[in-house]
Amino acid sequence: MGKLTVRALRAVLVVVLTGAVFVQALMVWALVSGSDPEDGSLPLTPLRVITILGIGAVQVALVCVWRLVTMVRRGTVFSHAAFRYVDVIIGAIVAAALMWFAVTALNAPGQRDDPGVTLIMGGIGVAILGVALIVLVLRMLLAQAVARDVEAAQMQAELDEVI
Question: DSSP alpha helices (H): ranges in 34-114?
Answer without folding.
Answer: 44-74, 81-107
